[in-house]
Fold:
Amino acid sequence: MPLTPAELRSVVEHYPRRPTVAAVGSHSALDIADGAATEGLPTLVLAQRGREATYARYFRTIRGRAGERARGCVDEVWTYPAFADLAAPAEQERLRARGAVLVPNRAFSSYVPLEVIEERFRVPIFGSRAMLRIEERTERENYYTLLERAGVPSPRRLDGPEAIDRLAIVKLPHASRRLERGFFTVASPKEFREKSAQLIAQGTILASDLATARIEEYVLGPVFNFNFFFSPLVPRADGLELLGVDERRESDLDGLVRLPAEQQLALPEAARLPRYTVVGHGTLTVRESILEEVLALAERFVDASRERYPPGIVGPFCLQTCLDKDGRPTVFDVAVRIGGGTNVHLGVGHPYGNALWRSPMSTGRRIAVEIAHAAHAGRLAEVVT
Ligand code: AMP
Structure:
């Protein structure tokens, strides 16, 4: 049975004034822990055994004589045989007893099954638990349907391989590394047939995934990941904030585009297909005249989320956007939680977040400010689900 609002309220009623900020140890856990440490909240990372060194050793908190954090930002690390074990009933009880608010990142929603998060995970989650599922492209209602509802431009869906009449991208998971992508681009039905057959033969994609793959128009232009924050604790008109913009480094796509065309063509066939494995991020700003339109899209996205999935977006979210030749934004993916690239402003803030808050404001810190404020004001139940 899902956590009811009444049960949630009774759990957080007993939470301390300074709740523990917890995150699954991967993705953006460092940003989350750093931000919480800056705001003086206890931090906890939930890691898979064998993958804890970043948190348990290199960024662990070392305290000075007066008990202050002299170095690092991860106060505690709890390890599990597998990430999904953090949802075992006894572990949930331990998290609640610690007064933990879990900040969901993509590692959490990838490694803990969504059914468990929705039906059986009884620990308060910062932000919208019910929306995590819409990130799955294979769901009938997903982020594309919400973008459409919000009137936010997204890449045109092509109705099957025979409808490919322009450069298109085919979106499906990788055959063996299921959390990675097996995306490929094609420009005609013939190219689709040839390329997909080749990729199946190479073991890169599965025929069964191809049947449900989304085929959409390829938007030519640079990618900007807009990292927003929405606060339900202030009047609606003040709720939306742009904190920062990042871009991804994708392997081996970025390696391929740094080769001259002749050397690209000299590569063996299989090596010419770029992978879209995210391996890092860089920071960006955007031409100022484009900002207003992007903010308007984000406002509409927030409104649509509040209408369709009450309470809607709470806290961080990310619109992954291509800007076309006229600078018009098209949103091709959405994160309804902290984005994967917010470590770009970890510790130092981002030009936009800093301009807004008059001090270094990363996404991690903004989350902690919201949790601390809500807890202090007795409004924690309004920012967790
Ligand atoms: P995603 O899995 O949606 O985050 O997409 C992975 C990468 O594929 C992005 O970082 C983009 O480089 C690229 N991509 C996805 N959809 C499109 C699109 N419709 N047009 C152009 N590039 C896209």
In short: The longest strand covers residues 240-252. The chain has three domains: 5-132, 143-152+221-370, 161-217. Residues 155, 169, 181, 183, 216, 218-219, 223, 248, 276, 320, 322, 332-333 surround adenosine monophosphate (CB under 6 Å).
